[in-house]
Design goal:
single chain; 7-stranded parallel β-sheet; 222 residues; Rossmann fold; 38% helix; alpha/beta
Length: 222
């Protein structure tokens, strides 16, 4: 785990964009493509709006997917797909692709469609950008939840339905860990407290902190 601390948001994002750009270029050179799973959230959206500043990346070889999504078709404008598409902007989206997780209102049908459409993102990815909840939540995986326990215990990369305040769909732990880099973009002392708590209690984020299968990069500012 690498902990990167910054005094302000601009410095953090500048450094993080350099890291992301370098990782994309290396992946494209080695694999002829780069795969990113993106999370929603204010910090992440602020970062995605600056992706167009990344230099020397062939965006036609970059594919974006979603870590998780609210399964509420009537709230399309509030979905991760909508907000992330808007943040990335036409310059990138017209060259690359962003694959949704919601296709159908029927649970079983949607899971099947999501898995087939996102099968590429079940393999090893270049980067997964995660948000961190105050309770140790990652993606749509929350503490003390039966579906989260299933998502954590599954031995193969998968996409499953979960329930927060509303129905969601999410990559499971195995899929999230199947990446070269996991990146957290965190702000405030509260996130530090959550990570310290996750070292003492078993929370969803604890599995990320304790993983030896991928490189964890934490970018933090006050």
């Amino acid at each position: 785990m690498n902990w990167n601390s910054f005094n302000d948001t601009s410095s953090l994002e500048n450094k993080l964009l350099l890291h992301i750009g370098s990782s994309l270029r290396i992946s494209i050179k080695e694999n002829n493509e780069a795969l990113l799973l993106l999370s929603g959230g204010l910090n992440s959206i602020s970062l995605y709006k600056r992706f167009s500043e990344i230099k020397k990346v062939d965006w036609s070889k970059v594919k974006f997917g979603l870590v998780d999504e609210s399964w509420t078709s009537e709230n399309t404008n509030q979905s991760n797909f909508h907000t992330i598409s808007h943040a990335l902007g036409k310059k990138i989206i017209e060259k690359s692709s962003l694959t949704p997780l919601v296709f159908d209102s029927d649970d079983q049908s949607n899971i099947s469609l999501a898995k087939s459409s996102n099968s590429l993102f079940l393999d090893e990815k270049t980067i997964v950008i995660l948000n961190l909840g105050k309770d140790g939540q990652i993606a749509s995986l929350i503490p003390n939840d039966e579906k989260t326990e299933m998502a954590i215990s599954q031995i193969s990369p998968n996409i499953i339905s979960t329930t927060l305040s509303k129905k969601c769909i999410s990559h499971n732990l195995k899929s999230i860990l199947n990446t070269k880099y996991i990146i957290f973009y965190l702000k405030g002392e509260e996130h530090k407290l959550t990570l310290n708590k996750a070292k003492k209690e078993l929370l969803p984020v604890s599995y990320i902190l304790n993983s030896i299968s991928t490189q964890l990069e934490i970018y933090w500012t006050k």
